[in-house]
Amino acid sequence: LEEEDLRRRLKYFFMSPCDKFRAKGRKPFKLMLQVVKILVVTVQLILFGLSNQLVVTFREENTIAFRHLFLLGYSDGADDTFAAYTREQLYQAIFYAVDQYLMLPNVSLGHYAYVRGGGSPWANGSALALCQRYYHRGHVDPANDTFDIDPMVVTDCIRVDPPERPFVPPRPEGAVELPPPHQTPPLRLINVTIHFQLKTINLQSLINNEIPDCYTFSILITFDNKAFSGRVPISLETQVHIQECKHPSVFRHGDNSFRLLFDVVVILTCSFSFLLCARSLLRGFLLQNEFVGFVWRQRGRAISLWERLEFVNGWYILLVTSDVLTISGTIMKIGIEAKNLASYDVCSILLGTSTLLVWVGVIRYLTFFHKYNILIATLRVALPSVMRFCCCVAVIYLGYCFCGWIVLGPYHVKFRSLSMVSECLFSLINGDDMFVTFAAMQTQQGRSSLVWLFSQIYLYSFISLFIYMVLSLFIALITGAYDAIKVSRASPPACLPMGPTHITHSSNRGSVSLGGHHGGSQRTWQGEERRTQGENVGDSAKPKEMVAGN
């Protein structure tokens, strides 16, 4: 009696929603809840995305404006080539940046305010810190091939405070004096940095009926001479801190309660989904323990780890993860809209990842139908072989990455770092930028014929190996799994039956009964997704003890 009861519960546990509906008339509540969750989570993501887009746009446009304001002669797209080549250009660029900072209220189209004490730790409470780093002592004589350098680095800073009232620049030679060139010659100068902060308010958020945020931009202008090559690259980088404005007041500001109510609905929906999925996982865990104990008592056999994992539904774990991420992201979103938090990037990652998992989780319900489960079925069969294949390919790929970086890095812009090498090689596998990659090495043929010859062998061998062999074998593995799935299928019905025996529902008793014989031959018990997806190829059978006849 105990064995029969456990067999029935095992059978029912591994049924699909279709079979559970046939057996007991149970409605697929989790499926309906997931559909509702997809709708509310997607709408929430769109609303937050529109708001986050304004934040990112405001930050990027201010950075571009700062470069035009503080960098002498700057033009769009010149970030990598913008540099000074003479002493006059260097000092003019430094004086120009400081003067523009002091004249900012008169010249800027934006509304910016100075931050007293925002000039880095070396400013000692001043608004702007202009610092130069140089070697303590040094003498270089290229004519005699001699040099004498003291590698100790000295940092000198000039502190600047803006006037109480905006002014017009008094004289062309600049408002701030640097040490003259003969005191700190370029041969000892490592870099010059200008650090300051500016405040502004993002009024764009009024478009989305939100209270504007207050921004503090930390700006760093760097004149980098560490290469001592005669070229001093000039760059401007910004970091932004978003905080709640003090005493915000917006005339005729619309009611934002609907947005808050919608976020609460999302939290309640995801909480209910979390409870249902967690309950199913808990039931599976308890049934697993009961099954393991029964087999040990009756058969004296220990259940392997892989057989235990049959009771763990990975789709429920995915949905639970998405619910946790959605609830966390929604709480953070409420804090952002209430101006208590400003972590837009973290919130967007949480909401974006959760939405991805929610949409992927719906595939589980499509796999119960024969016409829609081919993707998951093929991935299940092909994944082990593909993972082993990728491990072997990764060894060769990393070898090409390291080789290309060390040999071609000094000569090719796409090989300057390991990450860039990996991106370049991956694009070559997909057939992108082949001619551009080859053409970039043609310019080096006159400088180093040996490196050019090596680059040709390197690129041709990589493209031939990975496109014609590795990529073809990779596709063949997936195609083979797909063909095996097609062969193994034998025209199942639209909503496939689950388990080894036929399920009937007794209307007068309201219970599930198992049909089929219970004779001496053992029948292989197969779980929910094995039979549903037609995956008899390459799959191990589920535990047989409870399904076998007595």
UniProtKB/TrEMBL annotation:
Residues 55-246 form the Mucolipin extracytosolic domain. It catalyses: Ca(2+)(in) = Ca(2+)(out). It is a multi-pass membrane protein. GO terms for cellular component: endosome membrane; lysosomal membrane; plasma membrane. The keyword rRNA processing does not apply. It is found in: Cell membrane; Endosome membrane. Residues 346-484 form the Polycystin cation channel PKD1/PKD2 domain. The chain crosses the membrane at residues 31-50, 260-282, 314-334, 346-366, 386-408, 457-482. Pfam families: MCLN_ECD, PKD_channel. Residues 541-550 have a biased composition (Basic and acidic residues). This is Mucolipin-1. It comes from Myotis brandtii (Brandt's bat). The lineage of its organism: Eukaryota, Metazoa, Chordata, Craniata, Vertebrata.
